[in-house]
Amino acid sequence: MTARQDVAGKPDPMIPLDDLIEQYGEVPEGNFRYCPGCGLGMAQSALMRAFHRLQLDISQVASAGGSGCYSIMAHYLKSSHVHGSHGRGCAVATGMKLARPELTVLTLQGDGDLLAIGGNHFIHAARRNIDITAICFNNFGFGDTGGQFAPTTPRGSRTATSPQGMPEDPFDPCKLAIGAGATFVARSTVAHPVHLTKTLAQAIAWKGFAFVEVLQHCHVFWGRRNGMPEAIDMINFYRENSAFNSAAIPEEERFGTPVYSEGGEQDIRFVLGVLHQQERPEFSEQYAKLRDRAQAKARAAGR
Ligand SMILES: Cc1ncc(C[n+]2csc(CCOP(=O)(O)OP(=O)(O)O)c2C)c(N)n1
Ligand code: SF4
């Protein structure tokens, strides 16, 4: 299929979902495995729209991830994917990028996968500034295993393992990514689909380690326990508690550690947009230069 274009010859942002799926997606046999209304379907739609916006050849896109509800997404995309063990997406993607630097390499990971068990791989991939786009589907907990708390669970909110309210403060994943050395860091939500599409496209086009936090609801496990049992409740929650980044928002207010209590004290504001950009040498290019130098030396020495 040829890429659908608008009247000015640019990728058509209104491309119907059926056409997007034909170009980038796979329709599974039987039922979809996301729960009805899950934010992952909305996130996937934005990701396919980002591919379309960049006119990517899907055969040149590869991703890696671990295990979780989010990992089903790889089955619904035509791109190549490696299911690594839980949390190892960044390590697997690093190998992919070094072996095949011409590919567009992504990690698709849940907040539990990327920031709990996979936290170490994440910070070191960010430090190296390898050209990978790490996409974190943050649903405030471990969805696939029944809604246990994760390092992103808002303090005070109820989960399967914090029925009286989470006593710990969460990470701000974007602040963590910046601290670790990511050179492009952004946040969006599934309740802002156009913004999410543009943000994902910007991140994928970035040369270096790009991190996008996608706030994506799990109404089934987090929402239901916190007074938001329907998907629409959580979409409204993101809309009501988000602000777009601007010069008017002081640097320190762009990040936060949400506190949530149904009907009680709340301190939640998600600042959306590009939160950090910095030029720095990219690792796979540095690595290739070193390899070429070592090979030239070996040839000169007759080895
Ligand atoms: C080494 C290892 N530990 C634990 C698990 C069990 N496990 C499977 S999915 C999952 C939770 C994933 O949560 P998250 O990454 O946030 O993704 P979500 O399901 O919320 O999309 C866990 C703990 C596993 N598969 N492997
Ligand atoms: S358990 Fe939550 S994250 Fe997993 S598919 Fe269902 S709604 Fe989505």
Task: Describe the overall structure.
This protein is an alpha/beta fold and 303 residues long. The protein has one domain (32-300): Rossmann fold (3-Layer(aba) Sandwich). It has 10 helices and 8 strands. The chain has helices at residues 17-24, 39-53, 89-99, 111-117, 119-128, 173-180, 193-205, 219-223, 231-240, 283-300; strands spanning 61-65, 80-83, 104-110, 133-138, 184-189, 210-215, 242-244, 270-277. The protein has an 8-stranded mixed beta sheet with strand order 2-1-3-4-6-5-8-7, with helices on both faces. The protein is globular and about 75 Å long. The termini are far apart. The structure holds thiamine diphosphate (TPP) and iron/sulfur cluster (SF4).
Give a quick set of tags describing it.
303 residues, alpha/beta, Rossmann fold, globular, binds iron/sulfur cluster
Mean pLDDT: 95
Whole-number tally of structural domains: 1
Order of strands across the main sheet: 2-1-3-4-6-5-8-7
The poorly predicted ranges are none
* Total number of beta strands: 8
CATH topology: Rossmann fold
Calculate the terminal CA-CA distance, rounded to whole Å.
49 Å
What is the class in the CATH system? Alpha Beta
> What would you say the CATH architecture is?
3-Layer(aba) Sandwich
Q: Looking at the chains present, what oligomeric state does this protein adopt?
A: single chain
